[in-house]
Amino acid sequence: MPQENKTTAGGTGASTHSALAWIRLNYDYFKSIPGILKIVQAILGIFCMIFASPAILAGTHWFLFVVITSFIATLIWMSVYFLGVREALQLPINWILTEFLNTVVVAILYLTAFIIQLTSWSPNYHPHLRNPNLTAGVIGIFNTLAYAAGSYFLYIEWKSSTPTTSPA
């Protein structure tokens, strides 16, 4: 099968096939427990953003900062797995440890964020403002648990991939 060449503005031909040959779509990852957890984290993050927006109180500003930052980080990790970036780049990075540390930090930040969100809205504000923000805080609890579970599975994977040394 001949390769398809496209001519660029400079007049040189570049093979489309070879430029994207490193991409390998990995659907199987999202059938595993860590992959399903990433999907759950992203979906719960979307619902947190929906219910907490717009940020009226200072606590909600922090909550949305944590939610949006962790949502972006989760999308980046999902892309890394979906496109097979880990396998393609062959960088000297301990990917599992890096993701584990990221997920632990996000779980801790989510813990602080949902506590602040729920305590900020616990006084008796008007229900049309209060109820969605309390809902966002409760969803934040579930997302904290999802990130904590993701941290647990990453820890197990990291420990199983780290060679153990026996005492001499």
Identify the notable features of this structure and list them briefly.
mainly alpha, 2 strands, 168 residues, 6 helices, two-stranded antiparallel ribbon
Short description:
The chain is mainly α and 168 residues long. It is built from 6 helices and 2 strands.
Describe the fold and architecture.
The chain is mostly helical and 168 residues long. It has one domain (27-160). The protein has 6 helices and 2 strands. It has helices at residues 16-19, 33-52, 58-82, 85-89, 95-120, 127-161, and strands spanning 5-7, 13-15. It has a two-stranded antiparallel ribbon. The relative contact order is 0.14. It comes from Laodelphax striatellus (Small brown planthopper). Residues 29-159 form the MARVEL domain.
pLDDT average, as an integer? Answer: 86
**Tally of separate helices:** 6
Helix content: 55-70%
What number of domains?
A: 1
Strand content: under 5%
Secondary-structure element sequence? EEHHHHHH
Radius of gyration based on Cα positions: 21 Å
> Uncertain runs with pLDDT below 50, 5 residues or more?
1-15
How many strands, which pairing sense, and closed or not: the largest β-sheet? 2 strands, antiparallel
Our measurement of the CA-to-CA distance between the termini, rounded to an integer number of angstroms, reads 58 Å
How many strand elements?
2
Summing up helix and strand content along with how strands pair, one would put the structural category as mainly alpha
**Shape, per Cα inertia axes:** elongated
Q: Strand order across the biggest sheet?
A: 1-2
What order do the helices and strands come in, and which of them pair?
Elements: E1 5-7, E2 13-15, H1 16-19, H2 33-52, H3 58-82, H4 85-89, H5 95-120, H6 127-161
Antiparallel strand pairs: 1-2
